[in-house]
Design brief:
Blueprint: E1 11-14, H1 27-41, H2 47-61, H3 64-71, H4 76-83, H5 96-104, E2 108-112, H6 117-127, E3 135-137, H7 150-160, E4 167-171, H8 178-182, E5 186-190, E6 201-203, H9 209-216
Parallel strand pairs: 1-2, 1-4, 2-3, 4-5, 5-6
């Protein structure tokens, strides 16, 4: 839907995994298992140590990939292909309610993900919502500088030609909302609690985002 002229926002940035679909689907758990397999079989990290290593990389570098790129010489595309060698359709299905919600939001929509574009395309295709997104900004496009690194958010707004204040961001990870808030974005946490002033709104599921966006519209403006 076209953005009304008097609407204060231009874009809504959606995280992908465990934001557009629930954690309970199990897709990210399957990907996580493949991350550990990669570290064991490709990097020869002992199986007893690999879970702690992966957790440490995620906490220190933002993603497991960034950690192993820093500490090992690897081909990041080889890693991404390996860990995402799962079929989203085994975990997800068509979501007409999600498609309807996205259609009715008077904002341009972008996927902003620490995953990579091929995986994002597959997920969106399974959900049948790809047509509602202008573009996918993935870890490769960001040259592996990813959330929650503030530089990744600055790159996104520069590419989109807007200020942070013109963006709403939706993510399931609180740490990914803190830099967004510093840039002036309106932040929405999915499946979490409002535990920080950097989180403007917290909702139980992606489907509750519509109500929040409706509340942010100018007085008297409906989504439909």
């Amino acid at each position: 839907m076209k953005n009304p002229d008097n609407f204060p926002f231009e874009y809504i940035l959606f995280d992908l995994d465990e934001t557009l679909y629930p954690k309970e689907a199990g897709l990210m758990a399957a990907i996580h298992e493949r991350m550990l397999l990669y570290m064991v079989h490709k990097l020869k990290i002992p199986a007893d140590d690999v879970a702690d290593k992966q957790r440490d990389y995620y906490q220190r570098y933002g993603t497991t990939l960034k950690g192993i790129m820093t500490e090992y010489k690897i081909d990041p595309l080889d890693y991404l292909a390996f860990v995402h060698d799962v079929f989203p359709g085994d975990f997800l299905g068509v979501s007409p309610p999600l498609a309807r919600m996205l259609e009715e939001m008077p904002l341009r929509k972008v996927v902003f993900t620490n995953s990579y574009a091929l995986h994002a395309e597959r997920v969106l295709d399974v959900l049948q919502v790809r047509a509602h997104f202008d573009r996918i900004i993935d870890i490769c496009a960001l040259d592996y500088v990813c959330k929650p690194d503030p530089a990744s958010y600055q790159k996104v707004v520069d590419w989109l030609g807007v200020s942070g204040k013109q963006c709403i961001i939706v993510d399931d990870a609180p740490r990914n909302l803190f830099p967004a808030k510093d840039l002036g974005m309106t932040t929405i946490l999915v499946a979490g609690e409002k535990s920080s002033s950097a989180i403007d709104h917290a909702v139980p599921t992606i489907f509750h985002v519509e109500r929040v966006v409706r509340s942010l519209l100018p007085h008297g403006r409906n989504l439909s």
